[in-house]
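Archive entry. Fields below.
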Amino acid sequence: MIVILAIGSIALVIGIILGMHEKINELFHISPTLIEAFEKFIEQYIKGIPIPPPVS
Amino acid sequence: MGTKAEESKVKTFGLRVLTAINSRKVRLIRWLIQIASFLLVNGGLIGVNWSLGILPINQPAGAPFTTVLGAFDVFQAIFSGGLFPFLVFGVTLIIGGLFGRMLCGWVCPFGFFQDLLRLIPVKKLKISKPLNKGLRDIRAVIFWGVILVGSFVGYKELINQSVAENFGVFAQQPWTPFNPAATLFVMFFYMIFWKQYPGGSEDFAAGDWSFMFYFRIVILLVVIGFSIFIPRFYCRYVCPIGYAMGFTAKYSLIGIARNPARCTRCGDCEEMCERTAMQVPILDYSYQRVRDANCTNCGNCLDACPHGAIYFKFKG
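PREDICTED_STRUCTURE:
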């Protein structure tokens, strides 16, 4: 267990030093526009889908 | 003699009641943690937009509502880009070293989904031990296959002879297009959401509706179908991140052990594991520790043991 944790810690430190988190953020970055649209999409289910006015 | 026998019966009954209460607690705690984890990992659905980083669970990284990036998705993407995924490697080893495959049993959203499918009251299929062992090798084929493809694509990237186009959707993440969790949590979601997203229909490439689209649905349906009859079917025989975590599970800090003074080798634990989890041959291991790469520390065997002989051990 100690060996596993030691190797893991070393790998983690190397990853952070190499700035891999930035690379990951870059790869899996979701545009704010998409997030915003998604939030609106979810919001309508939370607040209720607006019922269109009756056709006169 | 008759009185003693009756006394013994009462004691056994009492023990069973106590074990049942205790087991219900364990089971209840696990269900609660699974529900909470599901909501937290898919935090965007309940308005949580934190980034909780990478976890070794089957959580597709492409979902706009996810707070966690599944380790295998990130691993594939980094590896296919010609880099060694130190960060994923580190996180996986540290979590594996501490908890073994506990996240599979307690946190993974797709594991939770399979646990829900297991509740469908149909007779579960019995898989013989040799067949079970053989089928588990599928995970190894998938894992090493992904490594092979990723290495090749990554190497070609490094020497500026990109073959990404030749591999199409498999270039960046060779396994993700097959991953039923990605189909369930991402593809179906986008199908509904994309129609309402401005410009979504343009972004949603026509190719996605082709053969691969239906192929993914078939894979998902097959996994769902089998998961109803074989508990944790995907975890047992398909999941590559579970396979990778198995390397650490044998030596992790937390594990399952048996008390030799209490264990009667009745087999209830193995039966429960077969019926609800990963079919680990618990009794084949020493009392000190169940060193099995497939044990997810779910605690179902603790529930099953009528003598309270099984317990969580906090020592590698």
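CURATOR_NOTE: The mean pLDDT of chain A is 80.
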